[in-house]
Amino acid sequence: MVSPPHEAMxxxxxxxxxxxxxxxxxxxxxxxKPIGATALPTxxxxxxxxxxxxxxxxxFETAEQGSFLxxxxxxxxxxxxxxxxxxxxxSYLWTKYRLPAVLLVVCQDYSTAKWAQQAVxxxxxxxxxxxxxxxxxxxxxxxxITDPEEARADLVxxxxxxxxHAAEPVVNAILKALSTALRDAPEAxxxxxxxxxxxxxxxxxAKHLWRNLVAVDLSFYKSYISEEIRDxxxxxxxxxxxLLVLRQRGLDISDDVRTxxxxxxxxxxxxxxxxxxxxxxxxxxxxESE
Length: 290
Known about the structure:
It is built from twelve helices and seven strands. By secondary structure, it is of the alpha/beta class. It has helices at residues 4-15, 19-23, 82-97, 110-116, 148-153, 155-164, 171-182, 187-201, 206-217, 224-248, 255-262, 267-277; strands at residues 36-39, 56-62, 66-74, 101-106, 120-122, 130-132, 135-137. Helix 1 (4-15) runs antiparallel to helix 6, helix 6 (155-164) packs parallel to helix 8 (187-201) and helix 10 (224-248) runs parallel beside helix 12. It folds into three domains: 4-137, no CATH class; 148-222, no CATH class; 230-287. The model has no long low-confidence stretch (mean pLDDT 84). It comes from Streptomyces lancefieldiae. This is Transposase.
């Protein structure tokens, strides 16, 4: 199953195709700003039983270098089968579109990034027929943006910085800078940044900080992720209120009761439990009618 971080790591380039030209300077290449970019179909399947899909595929037009294709792959772990698939993607795209193709692999940890950027050749060592050299964006080369002004200057790059550093301690400072920068951004611009960042953080601990920052700093936004985050915040507060009432009344709270209360995400249910907690004879009694 495709994970939210996987989707965020490549779809962010669909959202802002010009991001690649800004990221390229951190990859050691000099790519001029494109004058045009088009999203292309990602299905690279031929008339065979094998289905092959690249994550994101963009066509760029530049004044200096003409047209080229960018295939973006999000890679969460080492996979020995991937280099062969990537080589197929690049070869197929060259054949289909008659344009040079660039492969960008986006990673969230140093080990996977180091593995992904290794050149892989097809053919005997002394006669390599095809050599694959992906560009790799990850925590080893993406910028650490902790200044709100720097984040405000390029919100999409700041979001990518947070996503690629999701497992690093510095991500907390990046998220704080990004949330501060988003306060002054128009809602239409801020909403997708909030959602890309939330998806990209996945199950990393930093997701809790981002949800809290969005709930407080960006409380006026109404995006799906923002509303979900605020709902979770309200549920957490409701659970804490129930536990507080039970403690104040001197009732024993078992681990099972505590877990059931804190893991409930339905505000309506929590309100019912809170009302019962005021008069219940035991902590378990708040669940009796269910």
